[in-house]
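dumping this here so i dont lose it
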């Protein structure tokens, strides 16, 4: 899909990459941070937050790294320092995701080959130099590294309603990752589907109501997660610890 053109005689026209065009009553942009559908309703584009993640993972952690498995426990564990943190999150099947997060300019890796696993590992170990050995083991045993600079849309991103096109999930409200984004995307998808199936006959009225509800709820979470990111990756690591008691929308 390359472009979405609302307001044509037949409805919303979607141009596909293979050259086909087709008209629809409703196009839902659930296509993530770099949505191709978003430009049909909004000129907003994701901006870099100044915080980067480098993700790695461990497999069969209970068998291969029992000490780390005990450290992580059944959920996740996080360690915070000045402008950086390390988070390990247990997934199913003994798989653990590890996130090294730190403040850095977008081009922090100019002199680093991100495809070179050992070079990235050394760079991260240098960045977290002085941290406790078991915490650094999360990086020492990581199998591969994925660079994920963190982008966001403006807090409380809304748009003038465009008949026949809407957005949900990250396409509508990309925000710092603090456990909200995937949950909001799934909830919104379910709500929109249900309200179309059971709501008023007027599709446009249904979509308008959906957008109002989404904007209000996502705006609250965007504020919480944006403030949260400032405290999680901050010059004062005590801020991060205080945050976890407070992550509740009002
Ligand atoms: C490192 C990391 C950790 C996270 N941890 C959590 C967490 O613990 N809890 C949580 O709630 N959230 C978390 N999030 C946020 C969460 O991943 C996102 O908010 C969520 O995935 C958004 O879902 P979405 O469906 O809107 O977009 P996406 O998950 O990005 O899905 C969009 C889909 O659209 C497809 N697509 C894009 N363009 C096109 C196109 N032109 N044609 C066809 N298909 C297309 C993509 O391939 C993709 O499958 C995390 C994010 C990151 C980066």
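and the seq i came up w/
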């Amino acid at each position: 899909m390359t472009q979405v053109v609302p307001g044509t005689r037949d409805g919303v026209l979607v141009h596909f990459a293979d050259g086909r065009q087709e008209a629809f009553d409703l196009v839902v942009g659930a296509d993530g941070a770099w949505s191709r559908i978003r430009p049909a309703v909004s000129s907003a584009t994701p901006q870099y937050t100044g915080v980067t993640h480098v993700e790695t993972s461990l497999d069969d952690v209970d068998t291969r790294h029992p000490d780390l498995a005990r450290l992580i426990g059944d959920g996740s564990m996080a360690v915070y320092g000045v402008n950086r943190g390390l988070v390990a999150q247990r997934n199913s099947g003994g798989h653990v995701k590890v996130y090294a997060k730190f403040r850095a300019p977008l081009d922090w890796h100019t002199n680093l080959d991100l495809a070179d696993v050992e070079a990235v590992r050394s760079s991260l170990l240098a960045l977290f130099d002085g941290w406790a050995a078991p915490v650094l083991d999360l990086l020492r045993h990581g199998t591969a590294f994925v660079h994920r600079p963190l982008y966001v849309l403006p807090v409380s991103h809304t748009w003038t309603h465009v008949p026949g096109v809407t957005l949900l999930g990250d396409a509508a409200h990309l925000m710092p990752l603090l456990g909200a984004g995937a949950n909001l995307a799934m909830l919104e998808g379910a709500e929109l589907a249900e309200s179309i199936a059971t709501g008023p006959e007027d599709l446009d009225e249904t979509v308008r109501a959906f957008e109002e509800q989404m904007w209000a709820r996502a705006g609250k979470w965007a504020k919480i997660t944006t403030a949260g990111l400032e405290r999680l990756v901050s010059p004062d690591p005590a801020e991060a610890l205080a945050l976890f008691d407070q992550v509740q929308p009002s």
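The CA atoms of residues 44 and 153 lie 7 Å apart.
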